[in-house]
From TrEMBL:
The lineage of its organism: unclassified sequences, metagenomes, ecological metagenomes. Residues 222-345 form the AlgX/AlgJ SGNH hydrolase-like domain. It comes from bioreactor metagenome. The keyword Signal applies. This is AlgX/AlgJ SGNH hydrolase-like domain-containing protein. Keywords: Periplasm, Signal, Transferase. It holds the Pfam family ALGX. It is found in: Periplasm.
Length: 454
């Protein structure tokens, strides 16, 4: 019996050994499973070289997840280039403005205190602002993102509170929009907030002054008209970009003035609707790094003006858009860059400029060097032009700095043009008596409407 039992045990042990050796799925790789000091399980990652399987490295469960997440984020063949910060400075003790460059099709994401701000560049140039709040110092992270590309590697920058730092205080302070690379003068923001509205006595004075001017232009055998060519502030046309920063008033000074002038005989050409329709086009009515309208904006204004004038003077009908030959040209930044105290050669923009296919009788240097800003040394003083075309009307022009881009374009549609010294807004009857113009034209932006009370 004992012998028989011993044989049975030997048979079972032999069968078990043979079964384990013949298992096709089992390989011995040196270590099958181990545990680290934290109890996290690790597994051998094997590679096959020349038909021989050998262990190469050990990866913890946490590392495996990280690797998987990285692989999931790398979805495309192309990766965005990291953005380049061209300037980063405090414009207020607790406010920082950042300018930079990136790929043309990218969107910039700036992470600060666990919040992310998106900045939308124009032709690869971007600007953004950060309010520190109660934070004294922090590190921001900036990446570029684009459809069909992996996010760029982050760029980091240390920022902090700077006591006593005020870049161009008061009216010339700049409000920055993260949308479409744009800045706005503070005192145009005040208009938008309704802080510059006229009182009842001022509105009555406006109507009285306007009535006097229109009556004078019809007296003593004269038959001239008073035209007010009104450009809205850039902040009014792009007010939606500022709603997060300010409370916008339901009525503004511009609304008041338009309503008051409607009770007079002045011809008012309000450009708001025209500018709003073109604000997001290839050619925009305003410059991005300067507080003035672009040459395309001046063209839109002139088109509306000459549509009206050509009713009496058909030869003054507007040229077609195609005849102006607009092109986008890369230029150094304008007064917005200046008021931010940043380098205009780094805060650049692609601005629309006219290259007319028709003869321009007036040739004048309108811009400062390679900059988008008007050349005030050339354009500020009194200017007179005679194109010797009797079929066209004459004009006496009273202007603010928005008249700069119009200088040669407007004169081309008139026979004689007299530009009063810029920012001198008096209604000069001596000029009217000597010139006897067909039109007295105010070229004004919304921020300067108060001058109509003079």
């Amino acid at each position: 019996m004992s012998k028989f039992f011993t044989q049975i045990v030997l048979f079972v042990l032999t069968a078990a050994f043979l079964f384990s050796c013949s298992s096709p799925n089992h390989e011995i790789s040196g270590t099958e499973a181990t545990g680290d000091a934290s109890g996290t399980e690790t597994a051998a990652i094997e590679k096959t070289t020349g038909g021989v399987t050998t262990p190469t490295e050990y990866v913890t469960e946490t590392e495996t997840q990280t690797k998987t997440e990285t692989e999931a984020a790398t979805l495309y063949d192309e990766t965005c280039l990291s953005p380049v910060i061209t300037d980063c400075k405090n414009t207020r003790p607790d406010k920082i403005v950042i300018t930079g460059k990136c790929e043309p099709d990218a969107v910039i994401k700036i992470t600060f205190n666990k919040e992310t701000i998106s900045a939308y560049p124009d032709h690869g140039y971007f600007v953004s602002s950060i309010a520190l709040g109660n934070t004294k110092s922090a590190t921001i992270s900036i990446i570029a993102t684009a459809e069909g590309k992996n996010d760029s590697k982050p760029v980091t920058k240390n920022i902090g509170y700077r006591s006593g730092c005020y870049v161009y205080n008061d009216d010339w302070h700049i409000f920055v929009s993260d949308f479409n690379y744009r800045g706005f003068l503070k005192y145009t923001i005040n208009d938008l907030k309704g802080e510059t509205k006229l009182n009842d006595s001022q509105l009555e004075l406006l109507k009285e002054k306007t009535a006097y001017k229109t009556e004078y232009l019809k007296s003593d055998g004269r038959n001239a008209e008073l035209i007010i060519l009104l450009a809205p502030n850039p902040s009014s046309v792009y007010s939606d970009e500022l709603k997060k920063q300010i409370k916008i008033s339901e009525t503004t000074k511009r609304d008041q003035v338009l309503e008051a002038l409607a009770e007079t005989d002045a011809v008012v050409i309000d450009l708001y609707d025209v500018f709003y329709k073109s604000r997001d086009g290839e050619f925009t009515p305003y410059l991005r790094t300067d507080s003035h309208w672009s040459e395309y904006g001046a063209y839109l204004a002139l088109t509306e003006l000459t549509k009206y004038i050509s009713q009496k003077f058909p030869a003054a009908a507007p040229h077609s858009f195609e005849e102006y030959g607009f092109k986008l040209i890369e230029k150094d930044g304008g007064d917005i860059a200046y008021y931010l105290e940043t380098d205009e050669t780094k805060m650049r923009e692609f601005a629309p400029f006219a290259f007319p296919t028709f003869e321009m009788p007036v040739k004048i240097k309108k811009y400062k060097g390679n900059c988008v800003s008007p050349d005030f040394d050339v354009l500020t003083g009194k200017l007179e032009y005679n194109t010797c075309r009797d079929e066209l009307p004459s004009a006496y022009v009273i202007r603010d700095s928005y008249g700069c881009a119009l200088t040669d374009l407007l004169a081309e549609r008139f026979d004689k043009t007299y530009y009063q010294t810029m920012w001198q807004y008096q209604f000069d009857t001596s000029v009217i008596k000597s010139m006897n113009p067909d039109y007295v034209i105010y070229v004004l932006t919304e921020r300067n409407l108060d001058v109509l009370l003079k």
